[in-house]
Design a protein that fits this description.
This protein is mainly alpha-helical. It is built from 2 helices and no strands. 71% of the residues lie in helices and 0% in strands. The protein is elongated and about 95 Å long.
Length: 72
C-alpha cells in the first residue's frame, strides 16, 4: 500500500516578504525605464531623419544620371 500524499497547504494570506517586494519594485522600475527609453527613441532620432532620405535621394539621382548617360 502506498502512503497518502500530503495535501498542499494554501499559502497564508498576509504581507509579502520585504525582499520579494523589493524585487517586484525593481522589475517594475526596469520595465518603466525600458518603456520610457523606447518611447523617447523616435524623438532622439528625429534630427537624423533627413540623412535617412539622403540615401534614397542619392540612389534615385545616381540611377537617373546613369539613365541619362546611356540615353545620349
Amino acid at each position: 500500500m502506498s502512503s497518502p500524499t500530503p495535501k498542499a497547504q494554501p499559502a497564508p494570506r498576509g504581507r509579502l516578504p520585504f525582499g520579494s517586494v523589493m524585487m517586484i519594485g525593481a522589475a517594475w522600475l526596469m520595465f518603466a525605464m525600458v518603456a520610457v527609453f523606447y518611447s523617447m527613441l523616435p524623438l532622439i532620432l528625429l534630427p537624423g531623419l533627413p540623412f535617412l532620405f539622403l540615401g534614397v535621394v542619392s540612389l534615385v539621382t545616381a540611377v537617373t544620371q546613369e539613365a541619362e548617360k546611356t540615353r545620349r
